[in-house]
Write a structure and sequence with these properties.
single chain, 2 domains, three-stranded antiparallel sheet, 400 residues, 10 helices, alpha/beta, Aminopeptidase, binds zinc ion
């Protein structure tokens, strides 16, 4: 073989390699995914395109992070502590009367005795476009009323103030009725791609039961916005949202009552009574009470995981974003974890999700966002988990 021929052979090899190159995945991770996909296709045939909320259970990678690692990873960017003399605040500190720069909100505050007298320690954070104070939530609710006026009269959404009780904690109900559903059509395709009964899912979301968890109403309002904007949403869901507007920003009422332990006879306080009455009007398929917790991950609380729906709902979330109480310590606070991000709470009575379960709502949850995340991140994560829950109950729920 002459050198010339050898050279030609080599260049042919290079050309063919260059031609093959786009077919072979460049990075090892991609190559692995590619191989796994091919293997799956051989075993199960072409996989259908799935939505994030409809992944099969157990599909998620099992990488888990310890609580401390999560806390480091998700530490709030931009959370600052400031100390303000109590004299600079008119009356007791509330969400709305703490003097802070524009675009900042107080996320938590506590009073203490300092050197120069009584002072208030405030954790403040800058937020972009989510309402986190009583005042801003009220303005957002008002703005919704104006948007509703543009909707078709027949299925027009509405805002109702359901509690007139001394205005201490006004309770609002926002109804976005289904639109365009075809009753009696014998099986309706949900936007998840499956078929369920003939009617839209009756969903009730409640928020701000605990005053120091303002991501609840922010998430609920985003969901209403989505219902108005997203095509197909109102074909699948009859949505109602409850917002207990909280000007105090505290877990307990000024009388020291934990509102989420006051949803039963002998325990009612005016705010929970108003919420209890407003949620008694209809037979709901799904109820979710939105909360936030000091635990470093999203989680859902329910009495039992009927038909694996909670697991399905949770599978839309990244494993690292979920609270892991299954391994070393299945008990997280009062909750006994059975699955990643999910809990069974037989012992917890007098809370809102329990009341709704007792009333016969087949899927009744308390949903918790991690307060270790920024408010924006909490709202985004909770909205994702909420939508996943709605679509999974619509598609896989055992309903009448
Ligand atoms: Zn709470």
């Amino acid at each position: 073989m002459t050198p010339r021929v050898r050279l030609r052979g080599l260049s042919a090899l290079l050309v063919s390699l260059a031609l093959l190159a786009p077919l072979a995945p460049a990075r090892p991770a991609e190559a692995r995914r590619h191989r796994a996909q091919q293997q799956q296709q051989q075993l199960f045939g072409q996989a259908p395109q799935r939505r994030a909320w409809d992944r099969p259970v157990g599909h998620r990678s099992e990488q888990r992070l310890s609580g401390r690692k999560l806390q480091r990873q998700f530490r709030w960017p931009g959370l600052q502590e400031v100390v303000i003399p109590a004299s600079a605040i008119k009356g007791p500190p509330t969400w709305d009367n703490i003097p802070l720069p524009k675009d900042h909100v107080a996320y938590s505050f506590k009073e203490r005795d300092g050197r120069a007298g009584r002072e208030v320690v405030v954790q403040k954070i800058r937020v972009k476009d989510i309402p986190l104070s009583a005042d801003k939530v009220l303005r957002s609710i008002e703005a919704l009323g104006q948007r509703f006026a543009e909707q078709p009269r027949a299925s027009r959404p509405s805002v109702t103030r359901v509690s007139e009780d001394g205005a201490r904690y006004p309770v609002y109900k926002i109804d976005v009725p289904a639109q365009g559903a075809q009753p009696g059509a014998g099986g309706r395709r949900t936007s998840g791609g499956g078929t369920r009964g003939q009617r839209p899912l009756n969903v009730l979301i409640s928020s701000w039961v605990h005053g120091d968890e303002p991501v609840g109403p922010a998430t609920a309002l985003k969901l209403v916005d989505l219902a108005l904007r997203q095509k197909g949403f109102r074909r699948d869901f009859n949505l109602s949202v409850l917002i207990k507007v909280d000007p105090y920003g505290k877990r307990r009422t000024p009388d020291g009552v934990d509102p989420n332990r006051a949803f039963a006879d002998g325990k009612w306080i005016p705010a929970t009574a108003a919420l209890g009455q407003a949620s008694d009007k209809k037979k709901y398929d799904l109820f979710v009470d939105l909360h936030a917790d000091v635990e470093p991950g999203f989680f859902m609380i329910s009495e039992a995981d009927r038909g694996g729906v909670s697991r399905r709902a949770l599978s839309a979330m990244k494993t690292q974003a979920l609270l892991d109480g299954t391994k070393a310590n299945p008990k997280v606070g009062e909750y006994d974890f059975k699955v990643l991000g999910g809990a069974e709470t037989k012992g917890l009575s007098h809370c809102f999700d329990r009341l709704m379960a007792v009333r016969g709502v087949p899927y009744s949850y308390t949903m918790e966002a991690p307060r270790t995340l920024s408010p924006d991140q909490q709202v985004r994560g909770m909205l994702k988990l909420l939508r996943s829950t709605m679509y999974n109950v619509a598609r896989h729920g055992q309903l009448d």
